[in-house]
């Protein structure tokens, strides 16, 4: 099983990747500015389960802007997954975080080490997935959300995508962008050991697939974990929809 490092593991989406990675018995590392938040978070995610134990993960205290802590987190990992999202609009978080992660990965490579594969979360409508956005959301919503309602958020994610596409090959890094449709959460709690998939991955080249407006956050994290362990979509962009 791969060693998985998670950035943004205490966020609304990333916490489900943390739960899933532990349930699948992966070796998990987490970057956390406030490690004391992890124990109550795991207790909340696990309910009465004792499986989500803080002792099952390695915690590196620090922020995504701390290059040394990022290198410590990722050194020896097979995959790093980022679930960064804007928390204080209009302050950018995703693009600076992606640049910091890729900078740390490059430092590992220059040190003669094998950098992990990087999976970065983004959104449909961006880049060459614009048509998917129109199909899934309708033309008006696909224009309104990134241009008006969540303009700063989508500019931040677009800048992150632009940086990845412009630099991953030159840096010699393996970076995959997973673009989600509109995220939602519910009282449903996914069992990440269940082989039945609750998502589907759709390349922009697939113009026939049925595309959902919403996808569960938990399903997006299921997709991340599956891509992390199968190695699919290396150096590619793929979109995540409900099954």
TrEMBL record:
InterPro entries the record matches: NAD(P)-bd_dom, NAD(P)-bd_dom_sf
Positions of transmembrane segments: none
Signal peptide: none
Domain of life: Eukaryota
Domain NAD(P)-binding stretches: 8-186
Protein name, entry field: NAD(P)-binding domain-containing protein
């Amino acid at each position: 099983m791969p060693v998985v490092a998670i950035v943004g593991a205490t966020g609304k989406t990333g916490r489900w990747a943390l739960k899933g990675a532990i349930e699948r018995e992966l070796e998990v590392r987490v970057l956390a500015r406030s490690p004391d938040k992890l124990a109550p978070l795991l207790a909340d995610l696990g309910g009465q389960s004792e499986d989500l134990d803080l002792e099952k993960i390695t915690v590196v205290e620090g922020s995504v802007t701390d290059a040394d802590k990022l290198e410590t987190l990722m050194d020896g990992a097979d995959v790093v997954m980022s679930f960064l999202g804007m928390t204080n609009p209009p302050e950018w978080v995703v693009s600076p975080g992606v640049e910091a992660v890729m900078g740390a990965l490059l430092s590992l490579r220059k040190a003669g080490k094998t950098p992990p594969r990087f999976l970065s979360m983004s959104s449909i409508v961006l880049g060459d997935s614009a048509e998917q956005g129109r199909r899934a959301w309708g033309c008006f919503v696909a224009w309104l959300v990134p241009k008006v309602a969540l303009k700063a958020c989508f500019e931040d994610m677009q800048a992150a995508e632009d940086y990845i596409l412009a630099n991953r090959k030159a840096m010699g890094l393996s970076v995959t962008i997973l673009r989600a449709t509109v995220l939602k959460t519910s009282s449903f709690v996914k069992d990440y050991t269940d082989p039945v998939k609750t998502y589907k991955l759709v390349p922009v080249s697939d113009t026939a697939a049925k595309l959902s407006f919403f996808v569960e956050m938990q399903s997006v994290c299921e997709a991340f974990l599956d891509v992390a362990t199968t190695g699919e979509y290396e150096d590619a962009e793929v979109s995540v929809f409900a099954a």
